[in-house]
Amino acid sequence: MERHFCSDNASGVCPEVMNALVQVNQGHTASYGNDALSQTTEMLIRKELGRECAVYFVYNGTAANTLACKAALKSFESIICPDTAHIVTHEVGAPVNATGSKMLTVPATEGKITAEQIRRAYADETYWGPHATRPRLVSITQSTEWGTLYSLEELADIKQACNELNLLLHVDGCRLYNAAAALGCSLAELCEHVDILSLGGTKNGLMFGEALVFFDQSAADGFLHLRKQGLQLHSKMRFISAQFQALFTNRLWYKNAHHANEMAKRLAEGLSQINGIELLHPVQTNQVFVTMPEAMAKALIRAVPFYPNGPALDVYRFVTSFDTCPEEIETLLEAARKEVS
Predict the structure, then answer these.
(1) Domain range for 327
(2) The whole model's pTM is what?
(3) Exposed e or buried b for every residue in 18-56, given b needs 16+ CB within 10 A?
(4) Is residue 8 in a domain?
(5) CATH number of the domain that residue 206 is part of
């Protein structure tokens, strides 16, 4: 069976989650989230996130991000986000298509933007008053598209800017667990300043399913209707909620994410010692970005698949998962050493 470093989406389902799916596949129960398991799972997530919030399960991350924007925005309002944000680069314009809202992209440094950049983007856009859009939402990713982290202090600074400007803070948390594991903090600490959260699942061992979490519950007004209209209301909801229950039991989310992070560190250390390969960004979570000659990359991809990171042919991405093994890393490193020799 092929194993590779293309994406944590390529991994299978972790055993605890698969077992939960088998166990819940018994008998009949209420549909559309009205079953007891879905309701107790929502409470379990609220407890882990540390404060009252509304939790809604959806199928995938693009839907979570898009519906977060749709719930928060009027068509004349806009989104401030990094120019590397997934909602800009890899979601086919879905948030803009759904909302009619403009995206105000800010140049990111290693995937991150600052509170001061948010203030400047807001000032530049609102200068023209009713002739321009009204910024309403800031969207950032934790961990970022480059695998880097916003510290708790940076998040607090960003939230302070949002409060000053009457902006909501949305976090794309498809790899939120990796960030918490790397920072050594709880999910509650990591979400302290967040208004709307796209809470990941599939990148951390689920078969399918994400969650959209509204800490600012005023933004969730009408969301039961919006989720249905957005084609994201799963009739057999227990099959999503059972997976999240497994993920949030005995800190399975931490176990999976911590292992993926540790495997990425191991991979990065090995790659950095090979001539011709250089790390592009600090390796803080489960993504490793490097530069290497194209010929070397093509040879390595034949041995253990991974992806180029866009059109720049000398930049490549490796992603580790909950089930990445040291032996797989050594296979890749040995292939790289042979290529150099």
Answers:
(1) 252-340
(2) 0.97
(3) bebbeebeeeeeeeebebebbeebbebbeebbeeebbbb
(4) no
(5) 3.40.640.10
